[in-house]
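Query protein
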Amino acid sequence: SSSDPVQFIRTVTYHSKLGFFNPKQPIIQIQAAALMMSVEPIHGLEAVSTTPLLAMMMLSDKPGILGRIAKAGVKMAPGATAERILEGHQVLLKTNNWRMNTRALAEHDLTGLTAPTMFKKLLELGEEPFLATERFNKMSSTYAAYLKWRKANPKAKINDDVIDSIRTTGNQMVASMDRVDRAIWQQGFLGMITQFWGYQARLMEMML
């Protein structure tokens, strides 16, 4: 149970709609990657093609392994270079946009639910299809933002300001669905009704 009934209802709604191994959710979520490719078609295609390998690179910090994966990425993404993939990987690490366990997404409202540990683990496992797809979206959009920046700044060095800019652009390409982007009308009591209206609202903002 929860001392905050609104928070509890939002949490239950989140899991019933996005969790519980919902097989439809990854198909719905991947539309954000399609949106990103429509906004940035050239860099978007390269980013989507490279992201599976970037995800593999997140599992290692050994230069030799990272180099081999980057070279394999050249074959998967026409026009890519191993050097660019390696630099993009470092940028992605610094943006932290690939981390889905920070509870930063607008949909996340787990604080309103208390339950035995095993049940919580089951809930976390059940939301993994949603999180894995969202991770793909965030990684591919951030990498596309990096590719766009690097093309416009071929000689420039990457500093903290550049990282912040790439992170922001990447988030915007997938409609800025982090918790900090949630509108006032998605909070509190109204949030029980408008909890999942954020994506449509961001789409309208992008078209205006």
